[in-house]
Amino acid sequence: MMFKKKILWLHKWLGLISGLVVLIVSLTGCLTVFQDELQLMTHPEKFFIEQPVESSSKPIALTQLIAIAQKQLNTGEKVSRVEVFPQKDRTWIFRAVKTNKDAFLYSDYFVYHKRVFVNPYTGKVLVVENTKMNFFQIVLQLHMNLLLGKNYGHFIVGFSTIFFAVLCLTGIVLWWPKKWKPKTIKNSFSIKFKASKKRFNYDLHNVLGFYSLLFALLFAFTGLMFAFPAFKKAISNQLNSLDNEEKEVSLPFVPQKSATVLDNGLNYVLTKHSSADQLSIRLEKDVKEPQGIQVRIEKNRTGVFYWYYFDQLSGQLDKLKSSNNLQLGSRVASLNYDLHVGSIGGIYTKILAFFASLVCASLPITGFIIWWNKYKKSNAKKAK
After folding, report:
1. Measured between alpha carbons, how far is 192 from 203 in angstroms, rounded to an integer?
2. What residue intervals traverse the membrane (predicted)?
């Protein structure tokens, strides 16, 4: 009995300390689960070409498209990343991003953040977006750092996530029935909709908390992997030690058909993965560093990929990584985003993640109401 009192005390105070952060992160998490689908649905003029080209049509050279996008930016702004879509009805997205990691507020965190949407077959610029003011970008930053910048907000969200993980574990201890009798089992697994407001609220907190437990722990664990890179590295290294060495992949010869390494590399990868969902390119500033091109094979899945690294002097492959040949720890780390947003199993697991996140958002509210009712009752007794 004394043990449960201590657990209850810990559960109560951790909940009161981190409740508001958990509420905000969980609600924004609901939107983050479907942010890709919602963006395509709400702004098709950015992401789709009105008249898709023929399947035999070839895109303009990437270096030319970068130059076209660059002209749409202000002085001092520079394209740093490109998102390429093999589908013939999609625009290509050219990102220009610079951040101030020491900023305290979101308004100062991005020095600039823009996206230029270009028809890759005609070179026509469709939209130039100030992504800093994009709704989904603001929601994402609210989710990751409460709009308080990376140094401050990231720290608060990270430790609130630790508290949330402890809340999940202490919550299951408090939920656990004293005796597994038919009546106690029914009370623990079902909500009494016709009960008093206090009892109904208690059931919402207790029962829904139990049903969402596994998802909540998964959100917490994967969230900690994002918040604390050292934690992610430690988990990855530990799991890698249980696995054999990473399989080596033979590097094929890359024909040099284009004048630049970037154009040639992209054409080579597009030929190899014409049915891929998306390619992502972070433009390297230093020619001594290999130019990477990431291939996302499946829609909404970042954990199924190829990484091609091209030597910027010779144009040949320097390294080739695939999700198929990773060690256990590296494989788990690569699946972190898919696990966090529920895309690991497609649309059905995303729907489950959405509702589980919604339940997680409700727990601080119902928990606070439970505490408030007890607080008022305690004060009333003292007044007497």
Report:
1. 7
2. 152-176, 207-231, 351-372
Q: Which amino acid is at 373?
A: N
Three-state DSSP state, 111: strand
In a domain, 195, yes or no: no
Q: Which two tokens stand for residue 197?
A: 């407001």
Euclidean distance between CA atoms 156 and 108, whole angstroms? 18
Domain assignment of residue 123, yes or no: yes
What total of structural domains would you count in the chain?
2
**Strand ranges in the chain using DSSP code E only, listed in sequence order:** 81-84, 92-99, 110-118, 125-130, 278-282, 291-296, 305-310, 317-322
Are 361 and 369 in contact by the 8 Å Cβ rule? The answer is no
Contacts of residues 49-54 at CB distance under 8 Å and 24 or more positions apart, as own/partner, are 49/88, 49/89, 49/90, 49/91, 49/119, 49/121, 52/88, 52/89, 53/88, 53/121, 54/88
Determine the Cα–Cα distance for residues 349 and 77; give it in Å rounded to an integer: 39
Q: Is 202 left (phi over 0), alpha (psi -120 to 50) or beta?
A: alpha
Q: Which domain holds residue 303?
A: 261-325
The token pair that represents 53 in the structure block: 């080209």
Domain edge (last residue) among 298, 325, 352 = 325
CA distance 60 to 315: 19
**Residue 373, strand partner residues:** none
pLDDT of the chain, 384 residues: tens digit per residue:
688 899 999 999 999 999 999 999 999 999 999 999 999 999 999 999 988 788 788 999 999 999 999 999 999 999 999 999 999 999 999 999 999 989 999 999 999 999 999 999 999 999 999 999 999 999 999 999 999 988 899 999 999 999 999 999 999 999 998 888 888 888 889 999 988 999 999 999 999 999 999 999 999 999 999 999 999 999 999 999 888 766 777 899 999 998 899 999 999 999 999 999 999 999 998 999 999 999 999 998 999 999 999 999 999 999 999 998 899 999 999 999 999 999 999 999 999 999 999 999 999 999 999 999 999 888 777 766
pTM: 0.92
Which neighbouring-strand residues pair with 129? 115
Short-list 74, 62, 36, 57, CA closest to 118: 62
**176 found inside a domain:** no
For residue 180, being part of any structural domain is answered with no
